[in-house]
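Quick one: co-fold with zinc ion.
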Amino acid sequence: MTCLFCQIASRELPAQIVYEDDEVVAFEDIAPQAPTHLLVIPRKHIATLNDIEEADLALVGRLQYVAARLARQFGFADDGYRVVMNCNDDGGQTVYHIHMHLMGGRRFTWPAG
Ligand code: AMP
Ligand code: ZN
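Sure, here it is.
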């Protein structure tokens, strides 16, 4: 199986990694939509949000925890930021390894497009 984000997590492919631990990796999005645009992923390959199992709950919580810590580290925790997880075609998912977009450094609008 060739998965872009598995290859980034294992460093087979290059990325600007800003955080990693045993379970989670965060790196800069290649096409940033905000002054800071990071992707926070599990090392474990999970294709979509629909594929999360009960055994993954702590891991998925860790994605959010790491995102919040990175928001603090990058200096926009208090001003605010946007986290997004897209699922399947209608959700706009293009890479089928779950990832949390963390975007900060500008004001976001709602509803999302
Ligand atoms: P999504 O559309 O929610 O699946 O998001 C996929 C994201 O991955 C997009 O924001 C892309 O810009 C980003 N992306 C695709 N390839 C790479 C790459 N090689 N390195 C970093 N980010 C990437
Ligand atoms: Zn993967």
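If it helps, The chain has one domain: 4-104.
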